[in-house]
Write a structure and sequence with these properties.
This protein has 320 residues and is α/β, with parallel strands linked by helices. It has one domain (3-318): Alpha-Beta Barrel (TIM Barrel), CATH 3.20.20. The chain is 45% helix and 16% strand. α7 links the parallel β8 (186-188) and β9. α3 crosses α5, α8 (222-233) crosses α11 and α12 packs across α13 (302-318). The termini are close together. Its EC number is 1.-.-.-.
Length: 320
Amino acid sequence: MVAVGYTLMCEQAGPKQLVDYAVRAEDAGFGLAVVSDHYYPWLESQGHSPYAWSLLGAVAQATSRIDLMTMVTCPTRRYHPAVVAQKAATMGLLSDGRFTLGLGSGENLNEHVVGAWPHVQERHEMLEEALQIIRPLLDGETLTYSGDHFEVPEAYLWDRPERPVPIALAASGPSSVDLAGEYADALINTEPDPHVIDLFDSAGGAGKPRYGQVAICYGPDEEQCRKIAHEQFRWFGLGWKVNADLPGPESFDSASSFVREEDVADSIPCGPDLEAHVAAFKRFVDAGFTHVAVVQVGDETQPRFLDWARDEFLPRLRQL
């Protein structure tokens, strides 16, 4: 069956709460926990943004079975790719081989804290160079690298797992999918788009895992869930080209100010209807994804959601 994941949203909860949610998710029966890596929340109303890598280390020690993954880390601005490789190798050891390094080209929202946000073409070039650095380091090579964007005079990872940490790459179009097919062990895409799966297969990804992510807002009161989803996730439908370039929560607030509650509810199932949430998940299954991480919108709803997932949602998903 498709592996069911749980999303630790660093934008909507603090670090101690997120560690607790990870433990509860493992106990509930989720097979994967994915972690967002942000410097800012999308909206001020979300109100959080702890450091994902410190959180991952704590979660690795608090859990024993659930797989862990960044979804995603940008290896080109806040972090030098050689440092990302070191962090990933350490996580591979701390988690006893449960960690996958999820990478992507990033967003201005998080990366502008260290300087100007590059043009999309430059970002693509930087991402490819980062992959050319990270991949051999995780494989145990001593690396010397000189590129247009990054320099590595000499690097070697002294602590790394015997089995190299797998790399998953976020991709949505032909150029990024080609990178995923050449350098990555898995694909990440947040839309249930079978065309992207076909592109990945053609680019060398046939037989490799495909990770998706679906947002829902479960709760006993549909009206209240719609309010929560609108308050917390109205940025969701702006699209990658907008989300990648806006600089801060106030920009996302302005860009989404005309998004109505019903607009959000059209794309995020809200309320107690089990089959509506299953149908949203099933779109990824039907598109060919092998792993799908669920985002439960709203921090205050997490404990109730995890109990419901254990008793109703996960058993129903296993029937798929």
